[in-house]
């Protein structure tokens, strides 16, 4: 089932067009890696998907859910690690897209459940600043999982992660998409991993935009 | 206790708690300079009101609120970054205030406006306005506490999940304006931002979660204000600087204990 489609999508900041007339379609359980050099428009693409940047033309169509119900995971190193917040406070905030202002017992249970899914339940009452970078990334994933059951959008999640944490992250995401039908869009600089994981790729280079399956992309790269 | 001192404490404690509540999201989002900028604007507005013969409160409050919204608006402009917008507005207001004071020969002790004078706080209107603002802001804070947390922790995520961040920013600016104008009399225009900044910085050293920081900031702010006002009253010291030194002393004590027991 198609879950997201971009029709002739053009994204721009004022007169500066960053993404021009992009067409793509991804289905439930797809794992899309977005790759490209700095300034190629990867984060702009994400902002367009999240509804934070209105299209100059064209549209983003979400099937059966709204932009608010996307689980967004920012770059971990952009969050102030000295911020006084407990892991549980952060994860609970993922549910605020449901329109409530106060958390009820059902939300508490769901938040505890996603903490177990990500494997950090024991860190529930720890402060965000007391845990490692890899654990902080897991907290942000848990928050996104509470926000969405359909689509996760990750912005360079492997930044600042050691090899062990990266390995865990990619395996976890693949399992989510394969076993739970979660659709994943991940911006990555990690091209090797970009080629290895996920089943679709969006490669953004100035005049050379590619969208297709990972296999097609590898073939294209090998054929020059 | 003198009636005027009771009034100072009543208004002061409400303003101190308001300042702490709004200070937590502002300081944690590295946006504390807004209060400092607005305090300069408050000085300018105060001088304009005195020169025109109006009650300062009724002139300063709308001007500071207006400028706070203008700063938010300017900060969104790619050509004027947030801190530059604050600096531009604050120095301009300070300059205009001083020029008006000088040109009109208005009979005001500028030192008292800049550094505070509890004797100036006796108007019942201020108690009424402070009470209304205090109750309204407290209800807002409790009702939307979780969204305030979400915005403070990660603004982009908050926007992505549909929280109207710009509306909250406007409300923070509004509360900050009220704090600046009401607190300026006791604290002084140049020192009022201490009420916004210090309680959060102290509480951040004590508490490891957001709720703890919010509650602790409100308590720390109120206690420092009461202690500062009483000390200044009994020792005949200027009020604003005494309250700031109370906050600074507590910060240094907590910081030292924090280092010692880490």
Please, could you describe this protein's structure?
The complex is a heterodimer of chains A (224) and B (262). Chain A has 224 residues and is an alpha/beta fold. Chain A folds into 2 domains: 1-65 and 150-224, P-loop containing nucleotide triphosphate hydrolases (Rossmann fold), CATH 3.40.50; 81-148, no CATH class. Chain A has 7 helices and 9 strands. Chain A has helices at 42-50, 87-92, 105-118, 133-147, 163-180, 191-196, 214-222, and strands spanning 2-13, 16-27, 31-35, 57-62, 70-73, 151-155, 183-187, 200-203, 210-213. Chain A has a 6-stranded mixed beta sheet, sandwiched between helices. Chain A has a 3-stranded antiparallel beta sheet with strand order 2-1-4, covered by helices on one side. In chain A, strand 1 (2-13) and strand 2 (16-27) form a beta hairpin. The radius of gyration of chain A is 17 Å and the shape is globular. Chain B is an all-alpha fold. Chain B has one domain (3-257): Orthogonal Bundle (ABC transporter involved in vitamin B12 uptake, BtuC). Helices cover 82% and strands 0% of the residues of chain B. The longest helix of chain B has 26 residues, at 3-28. Chain B starts with a helix and ends with a helix. The model of chain B has no long low-confidence stretch (mean pLDDT 86). The A-B interface holds A 50-52, 66-68, 70, 72, 74, 79-80, 82-86, 89-90, 92-94, 96-97, 101-103, 127, 129-130, 143, 147 and B 28, 143-147, 149-150, 152-154, 156-163, 203-204, 207-213.
Question: Helices, strands, pairings?
Answer:
The complex is a heterodimer of chains A (224) and B (262).
Chain A: E1 2-13, E2 16-27, E3 31-35, H1 42-50, E4 57-62, E5 70-73, H2 87-92, H3 105-118, H4 133-147, E6 151-155, H5 163-180, E7 183-187, H6 191-196, E8 200-203, E9 210-213, H7 214-222
Helix pairs in contact in A: 3-4
Chain B: H1 3-28, H2 33-52, H3 56-75, H4 82-104, H5 110-115, H6 124-143, H7 145-153, H8 155-160, H9 165-187, H10 193-206, H11 210-235, H12 239-260
Helix pairs in contact in B: 1-6, 1-7, 1-9, 1-10, 1-11, 2-3, 2-4, 2-9, 3-4, 3-9, 10-11, 10-12, 11-12
């Amino acid at each position: 089932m198609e879950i997201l489609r971009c029709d002739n999508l053009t994204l721009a900041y004022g007169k500066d067009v960053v993404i021009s007339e992009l067409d793509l379609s991804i289905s439930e359980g797809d794992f899309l890696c977005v790759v490209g050099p700095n300034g190629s428009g990867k984060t702009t693409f994400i902002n367009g998907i999240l509804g934070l940047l209105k299209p100059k033309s064209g549209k983003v169509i979400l099937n059966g859910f709204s932009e608010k119900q996307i689980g967004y995971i920012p770059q971990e190193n952009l969050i102030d690690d000295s911020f006084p917040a407990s892991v549980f406070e952060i994860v609970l905030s993922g549910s605020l897209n449901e329109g409530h202002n106060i958390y009820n017992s059902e939300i508490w249970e769901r938040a505890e459940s996603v903490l177990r899914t990500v494997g950090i339940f024991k860190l529930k009452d720890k402060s965000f600043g007391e845990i490692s970078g890899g654990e902080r990334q897991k907290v942000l994933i848990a928050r996104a999982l509470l926000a969405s059951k359909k689509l996760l959008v990750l912005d360079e999640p492997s930044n600042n992660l050691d090899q062990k944490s990266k390995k865990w992250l990619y395996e976890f995401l693949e399992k989510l998409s394969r076993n739970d039908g979660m659709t994943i869009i991940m911006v990555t600089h990690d091209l090797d991993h970009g080629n290895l994981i996920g089943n679709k790729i969006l490669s953004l280079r100035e005049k050379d935009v590619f969208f297709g399956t990972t296999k097609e992309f590898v073939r294209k790269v090998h054929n020059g | 206790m003198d009636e005027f001192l009771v009034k100072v404490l009543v208004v002061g404690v409400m303003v101190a708690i308001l300042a702490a509540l709004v200070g937590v999201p502002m300081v944690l989002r590295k946006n504390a300079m807004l209060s400092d900028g607005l305090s300069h604007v408050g000085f300018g507005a105060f001088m304009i009101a005195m020169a025109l013969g109006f009650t300062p409160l009724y002139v300063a409050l709308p001007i500071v609120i207006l400028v706070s919204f203008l700063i938010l608006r300017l900060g969104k402009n790619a050509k004027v970054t947030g801190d530059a917008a604050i600096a531009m507005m604050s120095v301009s207001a300070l300059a205009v205030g001083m020029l008006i004071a000088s040109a009109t020969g208005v009979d005001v002790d500028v030192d008292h406006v800049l550094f505070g004078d509890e004797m100036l706080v006796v108007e019942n209107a201020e108690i009424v306005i402070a009470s209304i603002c205090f109750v309204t802001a407290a209800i807002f804070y409790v009702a939307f506490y979780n969204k305030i947390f979400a915005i403070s922790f990660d603004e982009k995520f908050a926007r992505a999940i549909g929280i109207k961040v710009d509306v909250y920013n406007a409300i923070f600016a509004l509360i900050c304006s009220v704090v600046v104008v009401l607190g300026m009399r006791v604290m002084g225009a140049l020192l009022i931002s201490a009420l916004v900044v210090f309680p959060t910085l102290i509480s951040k050293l004590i508490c490891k979660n957001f709720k703890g920081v919010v509650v602790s900031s409100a308590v720390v702010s109120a206690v420092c204000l009461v202690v500062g006002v009483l000390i200044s009253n009994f020792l005949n010291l200027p009020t604003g600087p005494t309250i700031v030194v109370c906050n600074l002393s507590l910060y240094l004590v907590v910081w030292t204990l924090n280092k010692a027991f880490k």
